[in-house]
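Issue: copy button drops trailing tokens. Both records pasted manually instead:
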Amino acid sequence: MSLGTAFKKRMLAVNMGNKELSEKTGIPLRTINNILGETTKAPSINIATRMAHALGCTIDDIVNDAESNTNYETIDTIAAHHDGDWTEEELDEIERFKEYIISKRGK
């Protein structure tokens, strides 16, 4: 399953539409639509994290949902994107995400 599909699955589970997700995260609706429609296959970690939090989960939860058909190169690309300053909490979450991805490479 792709990240876009994993996000859509989570949105269905919490009964949230694209517009509401956009409003809760402050992410433009077009960006949300591009991620969900997989035009954007590797959103920045900041955007993916904001989406996950608005859906009541973590980026790890989304990645775990997508894991069955994970393309690790795509996940590495997501983790490599940085678009802004990070809080200490976000940096900790990014580090945990990075460690999780690295741990999956050997499996």
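Record 2 (pasted manually too):
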Amino acid sequence: MKLPRFDEEAVSPVIGVILMVAIVVILAAVVWVAVAPMADENLQSAKILKITGKMPNSSAIEYIVVGGSGLNQVNTINYSINGTNQSTLFTDPAVGEITSITAAKGDRVVLIGLFDDGTEQIIDDRTY
């Protein structure tokens, strides 16, 4: 009678590793399917609008409309200084339009765009 040998390797560790890799790939796909629509919704709602500001002297900030794909969707751009709502900076802004506001060094100025679909979006938030 021949006795079995216990020092031979079996195929089962290889199959176990393949199954573990397959489980990880499937879990990654499930997470991707669950998370991807959330990221896509946020990207679609963001409107791109570029307005640059500079402080040529210590009492005024000059803004110029540079452009962006959301430019034709914005109605007005309002601003606040240090958390206090001020007024309208631009109404139906166009590329190249320039305006200035009175502000001091160290003031925090926030530009908020009001869009055709009723949404608001922060365009710029900066301390000068």
